[in-house]
């Protein structure tokens, strides 16, 4: 996964439905040689897919990883699934990096979001 520790934590915004969500859950092996570089390349590559809307990541302390990719339509998701570099990364993941994984693809029919408004800071009197 990319190092997001310096970036603000914000989920992908809600989009006007319908669109698609690809939910990829993983448990990784101890062998992670080349994983970070490949993951960074996949994050860059998917951004070039017309109809890619964004991606959220989470990792539990116990080792469950969750990545959700959002796509405007089924064609965008199919283009990503068929990408040659992505296919090669999938094969390497099965051979080396993943103990197990699950992929769920869903059509999003309802979506909304909330962001707390920032309260302006009032300078202390002094």
From TrEMBL:
<dbReference type="InterPro" id="IPR007138">
    <property type="entry name" value="ABM_dom"/>
</dbReference>
<dbReference type="InterPro" id="IPR011008">
    <property type="entry name" value="Dimeric_a/b-barrel"/>
</dbReference>
<keyword id="KW-0560">Oxidoreductase</keyword>
<protein>
    <submittedName>
        <fullName>Heme-degrading monooxygenase HmoA</fullName>
    </submittedName>
</protein>
<keyword id="KW-0503">Monooxygenase</keyword>
<dbReference type="GO" id="GO:0004497">
    <property type="term" value="F:monooxygenase activity"/>
</dbReference>
<feature type="domain" description="ABM">
    <location>
        <begin position="24"/>
        <end position="92"/>
    </location>
</feature>
<dbReference type="InterPro" id="IPR052936">
    <property type="entry name" value="Jasmonate_Hydroxylase-like"/>
</dbReference>
<dbReference type="Pfam" id="PF03992">
    <property type="entry name" value="ABM"/>
</dbReference>
């Amino acid at each position: 996964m990319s190092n997001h520790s310096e970036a603000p934590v914000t989920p992908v915004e809600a989009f006007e439905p319908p669109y698609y969500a690809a939910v990829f859950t993983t448990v990784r092996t101890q062998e992670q040689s080349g994983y970070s570089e490949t993951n960074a390349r996949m994050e860059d590559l998917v951004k070039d897919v017309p109809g890619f809307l964004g991606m959220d990541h989470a990792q539990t302390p116990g080792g469950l990883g969750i990545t959700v990719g959002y796509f405007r339509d089924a064609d965008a998701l199919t283009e990503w699934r068929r990408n040659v570099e992505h296919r090669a990364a999938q094969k390497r993941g099965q051979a080396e990096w993943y103990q197990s994984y699950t992929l769920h693809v869903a059509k999003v029919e309802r979506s909304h979001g909330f962001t707390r408004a920032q309260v302006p800071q009032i300078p202390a009197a002094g």
